[in-house]
Amino acid sequence: MLTKRIIPCLDVDQGKVVKGVNFVNLRDAGDPVELASFYNQQGADELVFLDITASSDGRNTMVDVVESVSQQVFIPLTVGGGIRSVSDVRVMLESGADKISFNTAAVADPNLIKRSSDHFGNQCIVVAVDARRIQSDSRFSSNGQSTPLINPDISIEKSSEWEVFIYGGRKSTGIDAIKWVKRVTELGAGELLVTSMDSDGMQNGYDLKLLSEISKHVSVPVIASGGAGNLDHLSDAIIEGNADAVLAASIFHFGTYSIEQAKQHMYAKGIPIRL
């Protein structure tokens, strides 16, 4: 069995790390460069840096912050937010990123995944999926179908359970999350970062059903995101959700647990982890 990973997430807005609940009510969690250095020293396996307002603001990811963060860490760094072209991918990789995460741009232009994967290799292409449970039939037209943002083949139906959102959770797409992850892996995504918008910041645990359903349909690694509140939540995402890695923010940023405590707990649960 491959070693599982613990990944702190730095959601950055206007140069500061922030954390909210259900993608809103953001509060300041510190300086991205200082936090990156801290997690590198603590023994995090990887680090994710997401410029969460770059797409909604129509601007590019902050290259200077990425460069500064990459100089402080010696673990894999994934960068996302505002990356819209193959040339943007090149800039981020040259700035020190090891992997690039697409979300909004991938929905707008799915072939961007293939072009980037063909050019740089799928090992550095991550597709982030922000998914929300469908609560009612209000998302459907009179014929029982949703109005998709793009290809009808991946639109939500009556049987769909989760819908994909973009622009930092601000815009619905009409895209079925399970259909979408299958499509993006076919196009060349080498990894998936799956965030439950319903669980995000709630600290009540990851959406294990969402994780297990996605893991069942793809062969690439799945990173669980959204909902970690205690150490059992981390191990549950691996054991019950079949995730390959767990991403967390609040429990690490605000000192609830350390990376070492998380790793020792997972090790005690029989999960292969780099101590």
What does this structure look like?
This protein is an alpha/beta fold and 275 residues long. 33% of the residues lie in helices and 25% in strands. It has helices at 32-42, 54-57, 63-70, 86-94, 104-108, 111-120, 177-187, 208-217, 231-239, 250-253, 259-268, and strands spanning 5-13, 16-21, 24-30, 47-51, 77-80, 99-102, 125-133, 162-166, 171-176, 191-196, 222-225, 245-248. The chain has an eight-stranded parallel beta barrel with strand order 1-4-5-6-7-10-11-12, surrounded by seven helices. The relative contact order is 0.15.
What are the defining features of this structure?
275 residues, eight-stranded parallel barrel, single chain
As a whole number of angstroms, the C-alpha radius of gyration is: 17 Å
Spatial strand sequence of the major β-sheet: 1-4-5-6-7-10-11-12
Which bin fits the share of residues in helices?
Answer: 25-40%
SSE order, one letter for each helix or strand: EEEHEHHEHEHHEEEHEHEHEHH
From the structure provided, what is the oligomeric state, counting identical versus distinct chains?
Answer: single chain
Secondary structure class reads alpha/beta
For the termini, the CA-CA separation is 16 Å
Proportion of residues in extended strands: 25-35%
- Regions with pLDDT < 50 over 5+ consecutive residues? 23-27, 140-148
How many helices? The count is 11
Overall morphology: globular
Q: How would you characterize the largest beta sheet?
A: 8 strands, parallel, barrel
Mean pLDDT: 88
Please give the number of β-strands: 12
Provide a concise account of the structure shown.
The protein is an alpha/beta fold and 275 residues long.
